[in-house]
Q: What sequence folds into this?
């Protein structure tokens, strides 16, 4: 049952944040504070589940619920595809009053039939939202019947919004993949260099900054879970030799379960920052060799790092002088803060504060190590406080997500998008160079001199008008 | 006149609809020091919030009662109480606009009853108005939610009883599709007759993208609640769009204010009707400025009609916007060959197209006869449909997240109609049908010349 699955999702020995909690807090699950009425921010479990699965590009993603769930949310993220576009199509049963009175099962079945017939998807993911969950639609049975009738995988994703946060939705989606997808097919061939990358959604095409590096080492991404993925690849993921979990606590459970079931070791790494990218490649090579890849992979990896790192540093060098001492406020939940902190420090910037909303105790220690004991670690910063800090000129740039974009802009402070809505890719060596270039462009933009001018009627025109 | 057909598909593909709760929230955003609150799971708010932020490029105050599985089963009154308490504590709004969702409506919560009890229990909230608008996601679309919230505000905020009409005071109820720029344009025209309009709601003062001096946790502006209370003293209510009829009627029932519904303000003839009413109610002639604008529109129509003539369009929009756009196109000589809308309403029969389909953006692409469409008009999601049809997309409606200045585009009034005419006209000019060259075979051209040209 869903209740048990949620309890299981929260019982995660692989999650350091979880280990550090008391028994009571653990039962309460992840980020309980985000569910305070009148003071909440962030998406629901359905949102999280869809974010985690939708990048499977050749699958259809059908939302069973009234219009709000898909009508307000479809096609809003920039998870990029190298082929099929089907995943971007907004599909919903758009439940009406009558569907709710009579039950939505028949409509759902017909909807699956239409999608299967019209779009010929590799699979159909059916998302259960609050209303069908409340009225007791038996979505699982409908999906199983439809799968048999139409001869394709029809996978129920039981993560209605009211069960919890986005983070929980991520976890439940991982559980769905484990229970219903991974291990259901076999790859045509396997190699000792097969890896899975977990928790990377190819936002702004970041996978494509990493893949060339991996290819040069002869590594093959058997399954990307789920950035630019194909259904078949995910179904074959159990044959990989090593799993890498990218910046995602939510998917640690998934990796640990794969270790239990299929004996695939995993490590957590990041492709943000030069040193972190190198560290990830080294760890990947080490684990692959441990699992039988030729030992030459390690010197190969070192050679690639020795070639790439200096190039990246050389490209960053011109910006160092311009960015030295510039103060950054980092406010993100999506990207592991320490990995960006160290990257920014690498170019001589001062990180005046960072959010640790989704960080583990280990992460926090690491950040303190990087920033010193006085480091300002923030949980949720109320918009009012954020506005005050920026209006007072405490930071030269805010790096955050779209939610706080306009708080920053109204104070006339440079802003850079580093969340999932971003349009620029910042992964790997090239990505770090791109990030530094973007920060420089934002801070030194000519628009600031213009918009901070006092109005003619305010006197003292050259003063700081912010 | 058209026949309105409801599609038979079980699965909406690329939906045109957004949720009524979002429309309700949007209406509450046009009130000063207001903060809308969706009564549902936190995702209901998150999705609506993200979409509103993307459309307006503004921070949007919008909160949630954060209903969980348990509170859905046990009832959401506690969540409503907590939410109002927390919002009051942090943001001190003048108005909280509470919108229901499919989740709480399926459970059939007695929100009105709960609210009454709450307000009695919390005398410290006396400087706060909480207005409840039923906006279930399973019935209707943004337009319905907007109308529901406006009517709810009239019922809750307008002072009871009939009052002596104040000379020159009029009410303006803008349509849900009107941008802050549209609202401002119409208000300016009304004021140019020496009239004082109370605009419910007024997005032009809250979502017009200005930079305030300090941090404001609620809306940045809008109509003050105290002004809404005085709407019963107006001489006349001007309601824009058939969907605002209910709200105008509610006000008439409550305070005896007569009303006029204008099905649209786009197009010369349509706006002439509006201006005539303003002349009547003010007893003043039209100001010179407005006369000039009308004359400019007439000139633009004369210059532009060539480029619309014989061309065809596919339009997907909420009923009243669909009426406004398709009738304007018709007046310019451009035929609507496919029309899709979000729900069956009496208004949609006025669309000059054989049939109007209640459906989605995928239907729009399917309805267009092959090769018979020069222009697509839809929200920003219409891009895929426009690509499938092979015609340029003119973005109108909600959401439009991939253009700058969405809030400031004007398509009502003489000047707005002219601007719309230019925008669409230029698209049509850019995409003129090719002249198929006839290649003469009997032409004497030297081989050398051919090669040089290639």
A:
């Amino acid at each position: 049952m869903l209740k048990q699955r949620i309890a299981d999702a929260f019982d995660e020995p692989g999650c350091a944040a979880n280990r550090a909690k008391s028994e009571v807090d653990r039962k309460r699950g992840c980020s309980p504070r985000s569910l305070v009425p009148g003071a909440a921010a962030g998406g629901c479990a359905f949102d999280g589940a869809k974010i985690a699965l939708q990048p499977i590009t050749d699958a259809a993603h059908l939302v069973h619920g009234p219009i709000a769930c898909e009508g307000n949310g479809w096609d809003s993220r920039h998870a990029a595809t190298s082929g099929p576009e089907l995943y971007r199509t907004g599909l919903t049963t758009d439940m009406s009053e009558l569907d709710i009175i009579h039950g939505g099962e028949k409509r759902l079945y017909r909807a699956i039939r239409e999608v299967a017939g019209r779009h010929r998807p590799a699979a159909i993911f059916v998302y259960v939202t609050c209303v069908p969950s409340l009225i007791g639609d038996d979505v699982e049975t409908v999906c199983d019947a439809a799968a048999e009738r139409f001869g394709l995988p029809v996978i129920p994703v039981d993560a209605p919004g009211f069960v919890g946060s986005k983070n929980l939705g991520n976890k439940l989606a991982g559980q769905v993949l484990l229970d219903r997808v991974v291990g259901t097919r076999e790859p045509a061939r396997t190699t000792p260099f097969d890896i899975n990358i977990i928790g990377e959604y190819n936002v702004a095409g970041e996978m494509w900054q990493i893949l060339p590096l991996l290819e040069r080492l002869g590594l093959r991404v058997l399954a990307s879970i789920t950035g630019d993925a194909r259904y078949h690849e995910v179904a074959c993921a159990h044959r990989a030799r090593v799993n890498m979990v990218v910046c995602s606590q939510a998917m640690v459970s998934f990796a640990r379960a794969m270790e239990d079931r299929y004996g695939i070791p995993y490590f957590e790494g990041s492709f943000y920052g030069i040193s972190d990218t190198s560290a990830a490649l080294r760890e990947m090579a080490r684990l692959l060799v441990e699992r039988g890849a030729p030992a030459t992979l390690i010197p190969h990896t070192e050679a690639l790092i020795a070639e790439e790192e200096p190039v990246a540093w050389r490209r960053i060098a011109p910006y160092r002088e311009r960015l030295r001492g510039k103060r950054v406020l980092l406010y993100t939940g999506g990207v592991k803060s320490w990995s960006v902190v160290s990257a920014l420090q690498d170019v001589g910037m001062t990180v005046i504060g960072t959010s640790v909303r989704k960080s583990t105790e280990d992460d926090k220690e690491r950040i303190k190590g990087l920033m010193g004991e006085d480091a300002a670690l923030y949980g949720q910063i109320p918009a009012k406080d954020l506005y005050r800090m920026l209006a007072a000129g405490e930071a030269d740039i805010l790096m955050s997500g779209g939610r706080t974009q306009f708080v920053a802009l109204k104070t006339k402070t440079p802003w850079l998008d580093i969340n999932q809505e971003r349009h620029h890719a910042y992964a790997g060596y090239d990505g770090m160079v791109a990030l530094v270039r973007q920060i420089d462009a934002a801070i030194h933009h000519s628009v600031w001199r213009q918009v901070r001018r006092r109005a003619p009627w305010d006197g003292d025109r050259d003063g700081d008008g912010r | 006149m058209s026949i309105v057909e409801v599609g038979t598909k079980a699965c909406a593909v690329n939906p045109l609809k957004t949720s009524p709760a979002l429309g309700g929230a949007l209406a509450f955003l046009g009130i000063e020091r207001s903060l809308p609150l969706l009564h549902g799971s936190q995702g209901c708010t998150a999705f609506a919030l993200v979409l509103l932020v993307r459309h307006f490029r503004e921070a949007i105050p919008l909160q949630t009662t954060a209903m969980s599985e348990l509170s859905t089963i046990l009832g959401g009154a506690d969540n409503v109480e907590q939410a109002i308490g927390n919002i009051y504590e942090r943001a001190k709004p003048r108005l909280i606009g509470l919108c229901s969702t499919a989740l709480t409506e399926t459970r059939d919560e007695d929100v009105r009853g709960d609210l009454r009890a709450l307000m009695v229990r919390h005398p410290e909230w006396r400087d706060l108005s909480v207005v409840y608008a039923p906006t279930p996601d399973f019935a209707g679309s943004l337009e319905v939610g907007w109308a529901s919230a406006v009517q709810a505000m009239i019922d809750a905020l307008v002072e009871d009883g009939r009052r002596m009409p104040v000379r020159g005071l009029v009410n303006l109820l803008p349509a849900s599709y009107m941008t802050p720029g549209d609202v401002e344009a119409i208000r300016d025209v009304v004021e140019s007759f020496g009239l004082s309009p109370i605009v419910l709601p007024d997005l032009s003062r809250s979502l017009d993208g200005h930079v305030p001096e300090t941090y404001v946790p609620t809306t940045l502006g809008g109509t003050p609640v105290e002004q809404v209370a005085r709407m019963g003293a107006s001489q006349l209510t001007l309601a824009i769009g058939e969907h605002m009829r209910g709200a105008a009627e509610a006000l008439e029932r409550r305070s005896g204010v007569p009303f006029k519904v204008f099905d649209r303000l786009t197009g010369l003839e349509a706006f002439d009707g509006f201006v005539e009413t303003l002349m009547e109610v003010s007893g003043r002639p039209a100001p010179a400025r407005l006369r000039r604008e009308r004359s400019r529109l007439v000139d633009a129509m004369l210059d532009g009609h060539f480029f619309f003539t014989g061309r065809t369009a596919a339009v997907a929009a909420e009923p009243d916007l669909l009426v406004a756009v398709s009738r304007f196109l018709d007046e310019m000589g451009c035929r609507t060959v496919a029309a899709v809308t979000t729900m069956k309403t009496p208004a949609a029969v006025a669309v000059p197209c054989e049939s109007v389909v209640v459906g989605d953006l995928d239907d729009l692409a399917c309805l267009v006869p092959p090769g018979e469409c020069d222009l697509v008009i839809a929200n920003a999601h219409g891009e895929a449909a426009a690509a499938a049809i092979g015609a340029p997309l003119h973005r109108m409606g909600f959401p439009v997240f991939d253009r700058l200045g969405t809030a400031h585009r004007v398509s009502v009034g003489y000047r707005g109609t002219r601007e719309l005419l230019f925008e669409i006209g230029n698209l049509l000019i850019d995409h003129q049908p090719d002249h198929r060259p006839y290649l003469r075979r009997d032409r004497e051209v030297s081989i050398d010349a051919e090669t040089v040209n290639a």
